[in-house]
Structures are given as C-alpha cells and as structure tokens.
Amino acid sequence: MAQRRLREDALQASSTIPVSQQPAGAWTRFFLPSVSDLLFIALLFSLSCGSFAGRLLGDADIGWHIRNGEQILLTHAVTRTDSFSSTMSGRPWYAWEWLYDAAIAAIHHVAGLNGVVFFAALVVALPFTLVFRMILARGGDLLTTVLLLALSMGAAAIHLFARPHVLSWLFAIVWFALLDSWDASDGIDSDRQSRRLLWLPPLMMLWVNVHGGFLTGFILLPLYLASSLICYVSAPADEKPAWLRKLRWLASITGLALLATLVNPYGYKLHVHIYEYLSDRFLMNHIQEFASPNFHGAAEKCFAALLLITILVLASAQERPRISRLLVIVFAVGSGLYASRNIPVSSLLLTVLISPPLSRSLAAAGNRAQRSSAWRRFFSRWSSLGERMTSVQNSLTGHFWPGVTLAAGILLCLHGGRFGSAQIMDAQFPAKRFPVQSVNSITQHGIRDPVFCPDYWGGYVIYRLYPQNQVVVDDRHDLYGATFLKQYLKTEKGEPGWNELLDDKQVTVVLEPAGSPLANLLALTPGWKVAYEDNVGILFLRPRAGR
Question: Which SS3 state, helix, strand or coil, does residue 419 take?
Fold first, then answer.
C-alpha cells in the first residue's frame, strides 16, 4: 500500500508540472537541436556561406598547398624538391604539411574552392564546439561559456585562414583534453583515462605529417610530466606509489609520441630543419605571424580581454587550480603574447580552463550576504538561467541537425555551390586583396616568364599560373632562407641596390601592389613598362636580356 501510495503521489505530482518543464520524449530529444548543435551549425554556415566565408581565402598560402597536393596525387610521391620557384627550383624542400596538401588537393579536385572553404570551416567549427562541450561537462554554466567562447572566436579571427594550421587547433584541443582528463582522474576512472592516452602516439603520427604545430603537443606533455613530478614529491608516503605509476605511464607515452614524430617522409631531418627555421632570428623577426600581437586590432583586443578575465578568475577563485592547469595557463598566456599565430590555440585553452571556475565564482557571488541586493539578484538570476539552459543542453543528445547540415554542405559543394537557381556558395580569392585582373592579363598576354611579386602574393600566383609560370619568391620562408630574403626585402622596400636581385635573376615580369615603393621605382626606371594597372596591382614588363 505504501509503495502504491508513493507511485500515485508521484503521478499526481508529475501531472501538475507544466508541459514546458516535463522531460522531453526520446524523439524530441533526438530531433531538437542543443546549444552545441546550434553553435556548430552557426560556425559552419557563417564560415562557409556567410559573412566570414571570404576570410578563409584571405591568405595566399592555400594556393601552393593545393598545387603541391596535386603533384603528390599525380606522382604518388611526397614532394622533396621545389618546382614552384625559379630561384629555388630543384633545391631540397621540406613539404612537412604534405598530408594536408594531398587531402585538400583531392577536395579541390572534386569540389573546387567551395570544397576547400567548407572543409576549413568544418575543421574550425569542431574545436570550438568541442571546447564548449568540455566546459559544460566541467561544470561551467552555459551563459558564461558562450560569452568566453565568443571572445576566443574573436581572438582566433587573427589567423582564420584555410591553411593546415587550423587542424593544429583541433589536434591541440584533443591532445589537451586527453592529458587533462587523465591528470584529474583517480580510482577506476584513472585506469580508463590512462588507456585513452594510448591515442596520443597515433595522433602525433598524424599531426607531424599535417602541420608543424605538433610541437604544441611536446610543450603540453612536459607540463603534465612536471605537474606529476611535483605531486609525487609533495605527496604523502602512502600516495607516492600511485603518483609514481602515473609519472612512469606518462613518461612512456611521451617516449612513444617522440618516436611517432619520426614517422614522416624526412625522418629526423625534419626535426633539424624545423629547429634551424625557428631559431633563425632574422626570419622570426621579419615574418609577421611570428611577431608579438599588436593590441590595437580587434582580435588582439579579444585576446587581451581573455587575459584580464584569466587574472580575475585566478585571483578570485575559491579553489586552487591543479598544478597542471596552472602550468597550461602560463603556457597559453606566454605563447599568445610571444607570437600572434599562437593566439587561437592560447584562447581556446584559456577559455576551457577559466570558464568553469568563473561560473562557480559568479554563482557564489549571488549567495554572498555582503553583496547589495541588486548584485545578488543579478548573479543569482545569471546562475539560475545558466543552470537551466545547461540542463536542457545536456538532455539533448541526438545531434541530428549537425549531421543534416554537414550532408547538405557536402552536396552543395558537389553542385558548384548552387541550390536550384540560387548561388549559395561561391568561394573566390578576394579581388580587393589579390591581383586577380593582373594575373588575368599575364594569361591573356601569353607570358611564360617567372613572376616577381610580394611573398604574400606568391601562393596566389602559383595557384593561378603554375605550371605555365613560376614565381621568383613566395612565403615558404624556410625554403628561401635568410640570405635570399634579405635581398628580396631590399628590392621590395626600394632600398639602395634594389635592382640587383631583379638583374641577377634576369626578372622580366614584376607584379606589385599599387603605390608600393618598388612599383614607384619601376615606373621611373627605363626599360620597364606598365602592361596592366588597377587599384590592387600593377604589372610591369621588360624585354629579356639579348632579345
């Protein structure tokens, strides 16, 4: 009778719950999109079809990545010597992103630039969605998470291009998630998380053949090793064996991951090459993306806001962060301040680390008696709304609509970006940034000589004109080296002796931005004539020597 009375009371109570608050049915939970679903769809749509679509092709690098991938697919061999540059033709070239190049060339062959942009948009959307779900799983409330994630998205815009580095964003977050979950685990869960670390060596084997950002993995690993060592030294005697086992296990995984980096077409020579490249002070001081951030830009301001919030969270958090997480925060802050190209990964790491404690601090602020009633109500309502939205988010696990969106995007790319009579996608290199019409003029005039242009246009010229034309220089700075690039910069800046490189390499075709120092000098130099000119670029020609 008592059990029956309890069941009847429960049924009566459930019948009084408003329909909007009753648990959703299985089919509803499957078809209704969660906030993470909506975030993924919004990112994928805006980056591939919306206002940010043109930004992904705002860097010319993708041009030579596509053409190099085509060579790999055609020859069934990884590129080892350069063929795009007239000055470096036949010289050894470490195409360490060869796997990405081959994949993106295959996509380009099937779906053109629309496919390239859609793939890049997908790769960018994944780490942000993954970070969002990680934060909620760690106790972050939805509203706080969305606001911090918006800041990290704004910061990542500084390097938002369809290049292989976006895969490093994804790999870095997956790498961090595996390490951090293992570090925070104990008991039975510790064994399960330890087994998951076995994914790190295969992931590294893939990462090392996709992008040089694999070095991030070997910065995170020592941080967690250092954290485990500190915990082992400071732990009570009865806990030392457990920490020693964790330390030995992570050291073994680190060794396997190091061995995995050797599984690349160049072996240990790739490591030597990357070291020489990154230790070249001239290159590091003159390559823009390796420069420290200029905080006058919008993306840099978003990163600065994240830095300030991080400081406030660390100062006001009720609980001390784990040593490993504190070390990762220091790394994220330091790497982001060191080079602009590091800001996206730094922002993602900071967001996933500070959002949960910030959410808890805001919730606690609503309960503090010393706060004014207005502030208490604000923080209380903020936390309450965030908790309710998080609860709804966690109950919706079908992910039906992201799958539909992904399938629709693939079909759209395969049909030239058209849906019926409407052109939904039309990915092109921005005509305001790249010399589209000038390159058209080169083609129309049947010019076959190598083209001298700024290094940041080189990839676009390779994409448009190779193999009919080579370039004199492009932005594969590790290939050209400091000595050649010093001559190149002297020419670009119009410094004394600017014409030496052009004469030494017998350059007959120069494509320069309108108003650049070199363009102004060539306009006044006998023997050079303007073949085409618009607001973006000026095409100069001169006869070959002896012709």
Answer: strand
